[in-house]
Amino acid sequence: MKTTSASLTDRMLEMLDHVQVDLETFRVQAALGRMDAADAFEDLKAEFRNIIHRAGDVVDRTSVRAAALRAALEHLRVQLELGRAEL
User: Fold this and answer.
1) What is the dihedral sign for C-alpha 38, 41, 43, 46?
2) Which of 63, 64, 66, 87 is CA-nearest to residue 76?
């Protein structure tokens, strides 16, 4: 009877060793996945920062052009009111 209980104990210890290895493997994979996710998040933040910067440049250029256009239109209105603009 002792051999049966010893082999059962040995098998249980072996199974526990396998579970421990599996859990450690899972822990390492989870840590690597967390690091990959953090890296991906940082990449997305950098990309978003660039997009916002480019959008700000477009808005600035558009604002300058709009201001120049408003000034030109105002100049034409004044000229028209003064009777200097001809059709």
Assistant:
1) negative
2) 87
The pTM of this model reads 0.53
Query: What tens digit of pLDDT does each residue of 5-47 get?
Result: 678 889 999 999 999 999 999 999 999 999 999 999 999 999 9
- In order, the DSSP letters of the chain are -HHHHHHHHHHHHHHHHHHHHHHHHHHHHHHHHHHHHHHHHHHHHHHHHHHHHHHHHHHHHHHHHHHHHHHHHHHHHHHHHTT----
Q: Hey, what are 1's tokens?
A: 């009877």
